[in-house]
Amino acid sequence: MQAYLTLVRRELGALFVSLTGYAVMAGVLFVMGAGFALLLKDNNDIATSQPVTEQLFGSGLFWLILLVASPFITMRSFALEKHTGTFETLMTAPISDLQVTLAKFTGSLIFFMLIWLPVFSYPYVVSIFSMEPVELAAGPLFATLLGMFLIGCVYMSSGCLASALTNSQVIAALNGFGFGATLFLLSALVRLNIPQDTWQFQALLQVSMLEHLEDFTRGIVDTRHLVFYVSVTTLFLYTTHKIVQARRWK
Amino acid sequence: MENAPMIEVDNLTKRYNGRAAVDGLSFEVKRGEVVGFLGPNGAGKSTAMRMLACYLPATSGSARVAGFDIFTQADEVRRRIGYMPENNPLHTDMRVREYLKFRARLKGLSRVESRERVDIVTEQCALKDVQKKIIGHLSKGYRQRVGLADALVHDPELIILDEPTIGLDPHQIRSVRELIKSMAERHTVLISTHILPEVEMTCHRALIIEEGRVLAIDTPENLQRLIGEGGQVIAEIAADREALIECWEHAGEISEYHVDAADGDYFRCSLTPLPGVDLRPIVFDIVKSNDWQMRELSRSRHSLEDIFLHLTRSDREEGEIY
After folding, report:
1. d(CA B57, CA A127)
2. What is the pTM of this model?
């Protein structure tokens, strides 16, 4: 446990001393800030029944950030260590392959969640500049947070897998983007003109993260979604773990 | 367990795609020994060390470190080993002290222990002045010492160093060697190198390995004896050339001789004795009885380099055909 926590701390530390970490944070803040400004402009003086979380996250900005930022967060996790050779000193320390895999994943995931922190200042910003008292429903807010966390799990684990496959950070980032984009496009298939009563549509609906996120932003926590994200993340982490072990098979 | 040899290697083999990198390696290292792993590049030194450090699994054979099997008890073995890989990879974005603490914690030391041990190893490796610096900004010599400090930080029983002096300048090499010698007092050390004088200077025993097989394992002195007792005797004598040749021709103990002109009246005689004969007193007597002048009399020792070339010669010659 101690080795695992030490390694998680090291992963986070590495992201916070690298330029990539700050570039990702700045990019996310800019895009979300722009989205927030647009949201305020659109909703000025208009009454709407849509939760603001759905409006903010339904705009596609979240997906843009997820697809572009995730590979940059995870690309270094294994690829850089293999490239510089520190992977060897890491794996000769008394620490198991599973601990290494989980620590890399956890570090990336914590960083991913941290970059969203400033978004929580938005309600406060609104309350300062609004004439009316601001009240935000806790339900959609926490459900959205949970949704982001789960989707983050999937994207961080697929990114770790991409990084474990190669020695090069560039290839890791490209592969990570490839994995992420594939998952996203798979989600988007459901928005094509497929008749709703076919089994294909039903199947796609279950794997569509677009639909899942919509539920979360409305404050709905569906156990089917939970199962989906946990199992996909487990699958990616299991594969990563096997790849870390694979050096033993050569 | 306390009395078990530090390393027992039995028929250890590693194959990559059918080619054997390490082929039936067997040897033993006692506690407190400093053993040099010697061989040309690609001889399988690094592969053997990586297996001992539990980074790579062996294809066949077995090995025990401090009585623990490197396959089934890898965690116990790793706890007892300080390993510095070839080229000494480090996290260049961390500060020296931060890195050492990170490594200490990773190796299972408590917060208090790790602080104490980091203090000790920074002192031991003379890193006090640079402990707040970022590793990426350090010179190669300092980085090497950071790598050594990392290997030492959890006070392991066995230290495995893969080419610890590669790429350093002579001053840095000297300081790293001193450091390795100081480690030998407390730890068992296995060090690989293709620089021969290094082994002569630092190791109790040398293990010569070529193409994954052990060619010889012994003390540097015994290895010298291995390829013939005593070496050539060199004598520089001022005398008549013919008289010298005449003399060597008739001395029964000399199997071969060369007489070359040196500066002035001197001639440089290289004399090869018959086995088991020390020629030096004989030469001295001859010179004295002829009333010649002599300014040098020495016996050339076989360096480890000669031994190494001697042992690996057949392979060398094959290699030159290509």
Report:
1. 62
2. 0.83
